[in-house]
From TrEMBL:
It comes from marine sediment metagenome. This is Pectate lyase superfamily protein domain-containing protein.
């Protein structure tokens, strides 16, 4: 799928592939023609180059992954995608998301073996219990990627986002990525998990990362149906728990390591 690599200055032909070309133009950027650092790994390719506007570009990401094949590539996710089948992003493909271009997983499984790049905005729409998400290369994931708010509002969405973070990689048999919190206040209602080996870490030591609730309930607890069970190896670091709104701070049924 690659036009023969050439040397020389970057020209307009290097960019045309981003907007409708059937192939990716591969240009060697250094004088050594055997050098593997090409424009494809420096400039992300808009996935719309591989989809169809008539389908609202919803086929774009899957088509782009197929076109890339085994080559190293960065794909720019610029339009929302709703899965119609399981999605596997191979290790040679990095995804960069722009705001508003989230993937809706639905009942399918989305597996990301390549690195995900995104800011603190929603890129994955998912409900635990339907479908699955596996993120196998990023060491950190952020609740905002799943729709959380860090301004002390949006409790239902933030609770759902943390629940989704805690359930990433259940089908991948891989180590869970660390849930990383940027400074802010995250309001949740009874984060419930039966999973082990979960790490929630606050970034930037001198800034406040608050995990709080305004209702009379635990902030973090273990449960299986109506029965409380023990959950081990929950690691929490550099986070302030605040149950002041409910008059309590609740952590139930968890073997917790707090730093």
């Amino acid at each position: 799928m690659t036009i023969g690599a050439t040397t020389g200055q970057i020209g307009v032909e290097d960019l045309n592939y981003k907007y409708g070309a059937a192939t990716i133009f591969d240009r060697v950027l250094r004088s050594d023609p055997t050098d593997t650092e090409t424009i494809n790994r420096i400039m992300p390719t808009d996935i719309r180059a591989f989809g169809t506007e008539a389908n609202a570009w919803n086929d774009a990401l899957a088509a782009a992954i197929t076109a890339v094949g085994a080559e190293d590539a960065k794909l720019l996710v610029t339009v929302p995608q709703t899965l119609a089948a399981n999605l596997t992003v191979p290790a040679n493909v990095e995804l960069e998301f722009v705001p508003g271009a989230a993937i809706t997983v639905g009942a399918y499984t989305a597996t990301f073996n390549g690195t995900i790049h995104a800011g603190l905005y929603e890129i994955l729409v998912w409900t635990v219990g339907s479908g699955a998400i596996n993120i196998n290369k990023n060491p950190y994931i952020y609740p905002q990627w799943f729709g959380a708010l860090d301004d002390g509002t949006g409790e239902p969405a933030t609770t759902a986002a943390f629940t989704e973070c805690m359930n990433v990689n259940l089908t991948a048999n891989q180590e869970k990525p660390t849930i990383a919190l940027h400074p802010g206040t995250y309001l949740v209602k009874e984060l419930t998990t039966t999973e082990t080996d979960i790490s929630i870490v606050g970034l930037f030591a001198n800034a406040t990362k608050e995990l709080g609730t305004t209702t009379s309930c635990a902030i973090l607890k273990s449960a299986d149906g109506v029965s409380t069970i023990d959950v081990n190896n929950i690691h929490v670091e550099n986070i302030y728990f605040d149950g002041a709104g409910a008059g309590l701070v609740g952590i139930e049924g968890i073997n917790l390591t707090v730093i």
